[in-house]
Amino acid sequence: MNVLLPKAPSLGISTIQTRVRETLSRYSFHRKRVLLLCEDQTRNAPANVVYPLIEEAVHADSPLEFRVLFATGMHRPLTGSEVSRKLSILPASWQSHDPRLTRNDVNPLVERADVIIGISTTAPHAVAGFSGGAKLLCPGVSSRRLVMYTHQSASSTSIGKSSNGARQFIDNLEAELDREKISLNFVMNDGEPIALCAGTFPDAHKGAVSYSCLYHIQRLPRLDGVIAHVPPRYSDVWQAIKAVYHTQSVVRDHGTLVITGKFSEGLGPLRQYLVSGYAKIMAPLLPYIPSWVHPSLAASQRMIRGVTDRINVYICSDELHGCEWKFLRRFHVYRMCAGEIEQMRTQPHYELHDAINRALLAKENAQ
């Protein structure tokens, strides 16, 4: 059984260019400090199409300054080559946000800006209900304290719900930021842009959510097994765990969820916490997150524990390596080649768990 999302026609580059130019033409950048907030490499808005148009429009109006700030939140910073791929060119002035260096609520570049332009993607999200919009500001470019506050309310039941505590806090923060703000909010489907909602942050996000509800959410009966393939841009397990949040609800109790992907960066930011006994650190979590614990990791641990107590979760990849994987104690982690993963997909769902166990047992005996 394959579950496919509804298809929608791509906007096309010319349509995107026309809408972006029309939107930017309504604003003045003359003698203003303009800041572009852009999503990072884990998102897939067509920033490479949009950025040259923004740079052209801003510079044509003689701004006081123009900077690019990547809303990385707690993700790792981008490399120069990743920036070039993301935007199609390397900006003269760019940097990745670092919450450790943000003393006030938001990045100092946001505080000094006169005009803020945002490029984001909207899809169901475990904490905010839906990603995109003002999420660029929090947790994208906010302080560690604000990131922690929003992630305390993380719950698997927030996914696909536009009204929840975390989203309300994020939107209130955006409303209190007295700056001229422009949002270019995309909705993607199968890697292609199907909607661009432009305007104020609240209006653009509301429009994007309506498209996301239509094309990203399907109601399914409970299944015995689900295989979720993680896109290459999720290069570490911390990002890949999102697939658990998004698919676990359709797996029956004691069923099987298989997450497959490359994970070329291994555990990613999880490494330092797991190696230092993170499982023990997180044991007393509830209801508050200690200040010395990474908030995103705390939220992940709380949600993942509830999932792995209910179903069997396997992480399979042909690039798993190193002893660090032994620290993922709540998952079944195995190195499997692409052919073996593809073979699992041919099994009926009610046989999936047994098929995986047989394959893994054979590999262990061979070793």
A few lines on this structure:
The protein is an alpha/beta fold and 367 residues long. The chain is built from 14 helices and 12 strands.
Number of domains: 2
Termini separation comes to 32 Å
Give the CATH superfamily of the largest domain.
LarA, N-terminal domain
Mean of pLDDT? 80
Cα Rg: 21 Å
Summing up helix and strand content along with how strands pair, one would put the structural category as alpha/beta
Number of helices: 14
> What is the 3D form?
globular
For the biggest sheet, the summary is: 6 strands, mixed
CATH fold call of the largest domain? Rossmann fold
SSE topology string: HEHEHEHEEEHHEEHEHHEHHHEEHH
CATH class call of the largest domain: Alpha Beta
Describe the structure.
α1 (13-24) packs parallel to α2 and α5 (144-152) packs parallel to α12 (295-308). This protein has two domains: 13-216, Rossmann fold; 223-366, Alpha-Beta Complex (2-enoyl-CoA Hydratase, Chain A, domain 1). It is an alpha/beta fold and 367 residues long. Helix content is 36%, strand content 20%. It has helices spanning 13-24, 47-60, 80-87, 108-112, 144-152, 165-176, 201-216, 237-240, 242-247, 270-275, 278-282, 295-308, 338-344, 352-366; strands at 33-39, 65-71, 94-96, 115-121, 124-125, 129-130, 180-189, 192-199, 223-229, 251-260, 312-317, 332-335. It is built from 14 helices and twelve strands. The strands form three sheets. It has a six-stranded mixed beta sheet with strand order 3-2-1-4-7-8, sandwiched between helices. The chain has a four-stranded parallel beta sheet with strand order 9-10-11-12.
